Amino acid sequence: MNKFIFFLLLLSVFLPAQATNYGINRQEQVNAQDDCVQRILKPCIEKCESNEDTNCVQLCKENTKNECRQAGE
Question: Does the keyword Signal apply (predicted)?
Fold first, then answer.
């Protein structure tokens, strides 16, 4: 019984630290994804402006979203 109580006490001490760490990691991942989108999307759209393809910008956005999906992981 004492081991069980000790385990619960230990768990209650480390659980909030893990939850806080997850929030920080999630924010870093979002920042990495945003940086990836900005880095890839702008040059792609600039290329679209020189072409007359109407779907080019939409394709750039979709490709960028797919390429940056795993950024920061």
Answer: yes
Q: Does the model's pTM come out above 0.70?
A: no
Rounded to 5 degrees, what are φ and ψ at 54? -75, -25
Please report the sign of the dihedral spanned by the C-alpha atoms of residue 14, residue 31, residue 37, residue 43: negative
- Which among 72, 33, 49 has a CA at the least distance from the CA of 60? 49
- When pLDDT is averaged across residues 31-52 and rounded to a whole number, the result is 87
Look at 43 and 14; give whichever has higher pLDDT.
43
- Contact predicate 33/68, CB 8 Å: yes
Tokens of 71: 């950024």
